[in-house]
UniProtKB/TrEMBL annotation:
UniProt-recorded name of the protein: Uncharacterized protein
Keywords: Membrane, Transmembrane, Transmembrane helix
Domain of life: Bacteria
Region of interest (Disordered), residue spans: 1-25
Taxonomic source organism: Sphingobium olei
Amino acid sequence: MFLDLKDYPAPPPWEPQPEPPASRLTARQQRTLALLIGVNLILLLAAPIGGATLIAGLWALLH
């Protein structure tokens, strides 16, 4: 089978896509993120203790 490409235009030269600009956090977003990280760090320590207390309380109620 023959494919005639004489009148077919050549593809344009390849050019890489430009990098999108890096987004920056506003001051309010930075404070909110710091607050969320702080709360999560506190809960990382407090939640297992609270969970153990609830489990111990349920265990005592059932026995």
